[in-house]
Design a protein that fits this description.
It is built from 5 helices and no strands. By secondary structure, it is mostly helical. It has one domain. This is Transporter suffix domain-containing protein.
Length: 94
């Protein structure tokens, strides 16, 4: 019974970590969209800087919750250098 409770708690932390990783990824869209808003340059710079800092913090907290292996895999999938490798691997699997 104790191990089942640990699995449930671990599962909740794992899901929270995955959620933080996804939210951090979405937060990286803010610096791309912000320059096209009618805000002043000073506010735009603050929003962009703040969103990048918050996205990094969320990513590393999520990485701590899900574990090193999952975070490394998530990061490698997001790296543009690896996109072609994933396509080639998928074609060979078929």
């Amino acid at each position: 019974m104790v191990s089942n409770e640990k699995k449930q708690k671990r599962s909740v932390f794992y899901k929270l970590g995955i959620g933080l990783l996804i939210l951090s990824l979405l937060l990286w869209l803010v610096p791309v969209i912000t320059p096209f808003t009618p805000l002043s340059t000073k506010i735009k710079a603050s929003i962009i800087t703040g969103s990048i800092i918050i996205a990094e913090i969320m990513f590393w907290i999520g990485a701590l919750l899900v574990g090193k292996e999952v975070a490394a895999k998530f990061k490698s999938v997001l790296n543009p250098k690896n996109w072609r490798k994933h396509e080639v691997e998928q074609k060979h699997e078929k």
